[in-house]
Amino acid sequence: MQGVGFRPYVYRLARELGLGGWVLNDARGVMAEVEGGAGSVARFLERVGREAPPLAVLERIRADELPPIGAGSFQILPSPHGEAADAPVTPDSAPCPDCLRELFDPADRRFRYPFINCTNCGPRFTIVRGVPYDRLLTTMAAFAMCPACQAEYDDPDDRRFHAQPNACPACGPRVALLGAGGVPVDRHQPPDHLFGNGSRDVVAAAADALCDGAILAVKGVGGYHLACRADDEAAVARLRARKCREDKPFALMAADLERASELVLLGSDEQELLASPERPIVLAPRRPTAAVARAVAPRSTELGVMLPYSPLHHLLLAGAGRPLVMTSGNVSDEPIAYRDEDALSRLGQIADLFVVHDRPIETRTDDSVVRSVAGARAFLRRSRGYVPGAIGLPGAGAPRPLLACGAELKSTFCVAKGARAWVSHHIGDLHNYETLRSFADGVEHFQRLFAVAPEIVAHDLHPEYLSTKYALERDGVQLVGVQHHHAHLAACLAEHGLGGPAIGAIFDGTGYGADGTVWGGELLHGDLDSFTRVGSLQAVRLPGGERAIKQPWRMAGAWLLAAGDRGSEDTPPLPAALLNRVDPAAWRQVIGLARSGLASPVTSSVGRLFDAVAALCGICPEVNYEGQAAVELEAACDPHERRRYPVALTSAGGSLLLDPREMIGAIAADVAAGVAAGAVASRFHHAVVHATVDACATLASRHATELVVLSGGVFANRRLLTGSIAGLRAAGLRVLTPRRLPAGDGGISYGQAAIAAARTSS
Ligand code: ZN
Ligand code: ZN
Ligand code: FE
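^ thats the input. predicted complex w/ zinc ion below
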């Protein structure tokens, strides 16, 4: 691939070993010919993969013998005309150890320079405007290199040979501190209450302001963050109020692993994830002693922590000397701001000061969010640091260039050709014009970057998704409609290089079912081509449709009604835990909707079952972010509780039914009898795990397979996932969970691509 220093690395290695020949990039990857003594050639082959530069991803190395031609010196050759590399752009990478050393070395010419980078690190995807990956086609185009930088750039022996974003204080981007109105804060005459020492640099002044309790908007790699002290209750509360974000946890940034481990419990997996060049936000159990304001993550047992991933972050964290809140630069659910004017206007009411710079961000790219579950990486969001890394397609791959448009919430899209697929950055919820525009722009950008002119376009079956409408508007392409939960199943199979068949337990909030109802608790038997629904959760009404998603108490009503004596005209009484929190008249109205079915579609969603149980326990009768009720219900679990509720598993017409109605009755009785919410939450989680394992084991034997896929957004629940994996393994089954993509809808586009590729190959 380009931009990771592979060719100069091969060049240096060949010269070190006294070999002649050449190296170049072509459409298949890197090609080299080396000529010399047998021992030297053997050593070259031995070392070429092992010592590859840090950002290079080696899929395989193939070597053939050629007759000697008397090659003289070793050369780097230009790419053959018209052949672009298949992986022309790599993900953004945190500063490498060499750059960090220089950043903090007073003798270095880049001492404290916030844009230091080299071939082994720095911005990539977020600054690329087009291909080939070349400075003029990045947002660095406006900066002409000074002679010192140019000399590094031209020298194959230098760490900055062909480092496209190469820059220094003399020639590169600059950082500035602006007041809320966008007016520069004169660093030589700073307001006393903000800066004590006017002689220090802009970043130091910003760090001082943070220490004094200010809220700063900080331009990062893929967009703006809002930052403040993590331990300052007043500052965090102010940020929450101004951002209109009620409960959703804020991410934190700590200077290094040691500081991070003062906040959260870190196993070796979490440490590895935190320190990786991708620098995701890692969710880990919070330490009781963590010096973190309560308002950072109310009612959460975990904190999201990341390490600095740009030189600017390193300087800021070193200056502040304490962990910072680093949350997305937006109001409420809007996309994060990444263009300067937009940030100044949208974040003007939130931030006291702005840390800006003049290197534009081309593509808005949110922080990635991961967790380590049962020894494996689980993505909650895959974006900055991982995008646009390629993910393979199994078998023959895509027979023709392909685009998959994804779902609606947490959406991504995916382009593919041959054996490779490229899943986009996190676009967000495709509800409005702005996200739709960034979706459409993103598709165009990826089509250009990866030279994919789609002939096949895959889409969800939901007719109202903007992504579906976008697909249907493309002319002259072959359309492939893919059922939502089948896409979840296929995504997991395909990323593991498998084609199935497998049993899939696919649990999520909402997906358009093949029968037109709202699915979300599905047991599927299928492969990349097709599937059968071999079981599901008992369906209930979604009283008031979309409104039931924001108001879990409505689902409590629907489930209580379903659990009661059928045919009875009595309205279930408002549960004790909801007294004074839900209007009794509204309750009666919602029960009426659920009974009549008016404006209340039928759903088998497991996500909505979690909502109902949370509300019955008095947790989250209303939510203000997606998945909140399930998150808080899991957080409430009493770890010492071992009992579980009954879930009936019945077989009818060759299909399994998971029936939790008896459990709902038991939960209502327990809560009424004063059983603690933590115990109820635990018994519920044990019940769902038990039912999932039982159902999958039954179906696996019925369909003679040992392969089980667990996916869908509900599996973001750590208890549910670890419990189900353990139970299924104990039953002798092979369990697959998503590792390279989220279990939630961020993985849908890739699943659609895998299915469309399978269906159109033959
Ligand atoms: Zn570097
Ligand atoms: Zn320079
Ligand atoms: Fe889904």
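Residues 484, 488, 508, 511, 712-713, 745 surround fe (iii) ion (ligand 3) (CB under 6 Å).
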